[in-house]
Design brief:
The protein is α/β, with parallel strands linked by helices. 36% of the residues lie in helices and 16% in strands. The strands form three sheets. An eight-stranded parallel β-barrel has the order 3-4-7-8-9-10-12-13, surrounded by five helices. The chain has a three-stranded antiparallel β-sheet with strand order 5-6-11, with no helix packed on it.
Amino acid sequence: MKAALQKIGVPLMHLLDPEVAHGLSIKALKMGLVPATGPVTSPRLVTTLAGMALPNPVGLAAGFDKNAEAVAPLLAAGFGFIEVGAATPRAQAGNAKPRLFRLTADDAAINRFGFNNQGMNVIAARLAGRPASGVLGINLGANKDSVDKAEDFAKVLTACGPHVDFATVNVSSPNTEKLRDLQGKAALEGLLEGVMSANTALDKPVAVFLKIAPDLKPQDLQDIADVALSTGISGIIATNTTLSRDGLTSAHAAQAGGLSGQPLFEKSTRILAQLSLLTQGKLQLVGVGGIGSAEQAYSKIQAGASAVQLYTAMVYKGIGLAGDIARGLDELLARDGFANVADAVGTKREEWL
């Protein structure tokens, strides 16, 4: 019954404004209208990411459940792990609407939300009631009008860190002015040192990831790899949305904001492979950007990702996509003779360099 509702629900949602439809999808999850299959798993899919045991390597990217309203149903929706947020110290409304656009012809979306969220205290209170099982992370953000954006990340980690398994430093959203400037070597070093200090102060420190943009030059990537290795973070998430508009055909292609979905797949996978080469297995990587099938998830893994995340493809295929991808990935690993997904990591990296 629930699967049938999902099949009907996706095209109906597309008759609505994208942000309204997204709000309804969160409500549907909270009401239990989405299949709760539990995480898809098998001996081939079980893996470890930064010390966290995952039932499968298919995760939910940040941005879907910004305010941690649907943690329990999302953890039961087939994902191996989920990430909520981004959270900022103070609640903020974000940018003016409309700020989310479907690019249906391109299997893509453009957003310029601007870190709209209810603030770290509200989100932390919800996270405190999370299920005991499941792997859960928080995406750390900075307030748009903050005078010290670097300090904001540490504040959110201090508030939310006690209730999560990992945290992601998000300096790669294109929708908060000057945020991407924090990807520069000196600024990033100071930022991560502050976050790691806040992490050490937690009763139980969590895994810390850095999420980067796909619109980076080779020297930028080298600097990021060097800083990531020197500051002791757990890994890098590659990548966030892009500012590129190459090859788009949809009517909303010229809208400002970050582009996600299928057009991002190749660009983000190449960045991932380059990072894999630069870090030489010393850091685990999470591949994000344009994943809409098991084959694409597998490509990210073979390019160097220990795990993957998705979001935009669910706009077109429904939330059941997570389980479908995990099951398909299991079949692909079996086809190629891999006993475990970890054995496939980076095996075709050279093809993406």
